[in-house]
Each structure stands twice: as C-alpha cells, then as structure tokens.
Amino acid sequence: MKMATLPYLLGITAAALISVCVWKLLGAPVNIVDAPAGKVHCISYTPYRGGESPFDHSFRAEPANIDADLAQLSKVSDCVRLYSVDLGLDAAVPLAAKHHMQVLLGIWIGYNEAYNQRQLAKAIEVAKANPQTVRAIIVGNEVLLRGEQTPEDLLRYIDEVKKATGLPVTYADVTHFWLNAPPALANAVDFITIHILPYWEDKPTSAKRGVAYLDQVRAEVAEHFPGKRIFIGETGFPSAGRDREAAVPSIISQARYLREFAAYADTHDLDYNLIEAYDQPWKRAQEGTVGGAWGIFTADRQPKFPWTGPVSAHPHWHMETGIAFAFSITILTIMAFRGGKPEPLGGIGAGVGAGFVGSALLLQIEHSMIAWRTPLEGAVEILLLMQSLAVIFFVLPEITRKKAGIAPLSIADTLNWLRRPTSQGRGMALYLGLTQLAATFGSLVVSLGFCFDGRYRDFPLAAFALPALSFALLSFNRGDQKRAYPDRREEVMFSMLFIVSTAIIAYNEGPLNKEALMWCVINLIFVLPWTGQIKAAIRGLITKSEAVAST
Hints:
Helix content: 55-70%
Distance between the termini: 61 Å
Number of strands: 8
Radius of gyration: 28 Å
CATH class of the largest domain: Alpha Beta
Strand order of the largest sheet: 1-2-3-4-5-6-7-8
Largest sheet: 8 strands, parallel
CATH superfamily of the largest domain: Glycosidases
C-alpha cells in the first residue's frame, strides 16, 4: 500500500511530541531533603555479584572483589555489617581495617546445630584476631522470625560469644519478636538491634511516611526496654518491584526515605545500619524483583542517586526519549504500510498512539532487564516481548482501517487450530486469534498468581496494557462488543475468570495500591470485546430460569 505522505509526517510529529512529554514527565527531577554532610553510620554488605549466591556452598568470595567493594564503601561509610563468616566473608574483617572501617560481625544462626557451631567458632576466631575492627557481634539474624531456634538457644549462643570475646554482643530481629521475647534475652545483649523496613511491615508504609513510622516504632521499643540502647540494625527502601498498598518502590522513594532518615538520625543522635550496599540479584529467587533492589549501589557498583540535590527516576530521559521515538517511527511505519490509508486527522491519531506504544515498549524492555535473572525468567520476558511485537505488527494496523478490520478467530477455533495446525484457517484472523489468546491467557495466569500467592509478584502493566487496549479498540472499531456471536462459551468463561480474579486482587491489595488497581483495569479492558457474549449468556440464563419457574 502506498503511504500517504502528509498523514505520515503529521503522525511523526505527534509521536515525537508524545515521546518527549512522556519521558520528560518520567524523568522530572524531584526535590528531596538533603542528607547531612558526612558518611552514613553503617551499611549491610554482602559480596555476591551476578549469579553468585550464598545458597551455592561451593562459592568463595574473592578477596580482591571484597577489597574493591570496601574501597568504594569507605567513601560513604566507616562501618559495614556482615551477616556471616563463611564462604570467604571472614576476609572482609582485616580488609575493612585496611580501609579504616569497623565491622558489625554477624554470625548466621540457622536450624543446623553443626553449622551453627562452625559459625560461632569462626566468628570468635576472627573477632579475637581483629578486636579493634569488630565494633560488635550480632549473634543471629531474624532467627526467631524464621522459627529456626528458640530464645533459650539464642541465650546459649550469646553467652558463649560474650565469654569468648569480651566484645559487645546483640541479636537482630524485627520489632514484633523483640517485643514478645523473654526478658532474659534483652538482659543478655549489650544493646537491642531492631529491623524497621516500612515497605515490608504488616501495614506497608510509603516512603513519605516512612520516617514518621520508624520514629513511632522506635519509641515503642524504647518504652518497652527502658534504659537499653536501641540500634536500628536494618532500615531502607527498595528502588524497584511491586507496590504494597501505598509503599511504592522507585529510585525517588528510595532516595526520599534514606535521605530523610539520615537527617532524622542526625538530629535524634540515633545509631543505625542501612540495608544495603549493593543490589543482590540472588534475593529475587525468594522475594521477587523487589528483593534484589535494596542497594544504594546497583549490582554493577553504580550509585543509584545523589545524597543532595534533586533526584530523577530517569536521569537519562533524553536518551530514552530518542529510543522511544525510534520505536514510535517504526510502529507508525508498520501501521502506514499494513493498515488503512488515513486522513490527516487520522495520521495525528496514529502518531499519538505510536508515541505511547513506543514508550510502553521501552518501559517493558527496561523492566525485563531488571526481572531477567534466570533462563526461565529470560524465556518469559522474551515471550512477552514477542507478544507485544505481534500486537504491533498484526493488531495496530487493523485498527487504522476505515472499514471494520478483520476479526480474531474465536478462542474455540484458535484452540482447534493449535490442536491440528492446517493450512485452512491461516491468515490475519488466525494471527489475531493466536495473539489474543496468548495475551488473555497470559494475563489470566498472572492474575490467578496474584489471587493465591501475590506477595512477591510484579504487576507487568506495560506488557499487557498494549494487547488489552489494542483488542478493545479493534473490537469497538468493528462493533463486536454489541454482537452476540453464537458458540462463544470460551469467551464467557475467560470473562468470568477475569472478573472474579479482578475482584479478588482488588480485595487483597486494597484501594491504596494504584499499581494493583491499574492491573484490575487492564483485566476489565480484556473483557470489553466479549461484552456481547456476556450479555447473551446472561439473557440465556434468565430465559432458562423463567422456563424452569413456569414449569
């Protein structure tokens, strides 16, 4: 098809404006309270890079890597907190001394007594060899929370370490377990170490309210343990991942919380440790994307935000604008050659749509780069990208046609083709049907996951908003939502699953989770093309009910 020059040029102009507006808005700098001058008190450190993990018992941290990390961290803090002394981490203590840093030496306590004894022996050995470097020893991290030991067992371990080293000793856990611990545990430690993570609290708290929440919790603990020094052993905020009610992970949220907390701690003379130094991708296996996004440095050792001045979630938004615009031109070209010949006004509309789709595609790719950790995750992200490309190549051009575009095959016909692929039924209707089935089925799988086990799952908004909106627009272009096609029970079943899962997600996540609400809207948009079938099914049920009642 010959491309109309004027509508195409108008479309390019519209796409350029949309791309600039979207990314300038996303990259707009936000003014945040500056952190006080100087270094943060202490920061959690684990040496794992790339695919390295503490679950790999053959792993040994390279001293050269630890040395390079501590050289970088010494510029932002004079202290690091370690969580164990195995897998080569014991080398971090003398290396910390080299960089004039102190260490909160952690002893990892689990359910295995033999492993615990090895940890205790090694930690005592390291502490005795470096008494000027080891600031205190943390015997166990959230052991009571995990239910792997009893308070009585912890008391035994704490007493052994105190007698062997003579150094200050503590135990670290969330506030709930400290408030319910026996008094003997509080008496045994030199100071109380509590973890306060507004994002992970039972009632998630936003970054804006995070410091106020921490102040409230700290006051409660101080009242419960009068005269006992309170140390904040972990606090921080993630830079990426799924929302939890009003707690929204982002670079802005992380910078806001950490900078405001540093200012608060400075004015209240509060001692603390931040979690954590570097993003740890291995944590995503247990906690999803958010688990690997707590570092103030990325996994490749780049700072995420400045500690003074404005902060941008997309500091390179000019470059991202260019990439999104390039995507938009490609999309617009596909629409121009494969779709209908538009009038000038239609060209502007197509350009606006291409601008938004190009930006959504870039956001999807950026999320994939964060979420891609294992080969399975990589395969899923590639399939989602292929799904978006299929929508761009097959669905968007059909929307631009003046006359009603081709309708997707029904779910039943598409499934029949998948069972017995033949040349019969090939063509645009089949491609549209396959794309629609993949998108709706994928969205349903994700939604059902949220219903039954949603704590660590991301909301893939960019990946599914495009097919949902595109098929809805194609349906409205054809008027399908007003037609009751016969034998479309599968569409009705899919619609009911969408509606039920949407209700469950909205209930589970609550009205404060904007990300969850947006996902619910996407689910309902998927249903729009099938409203005619839903109405027909409801009318059929009413008719049958009346027939039964009349008999």
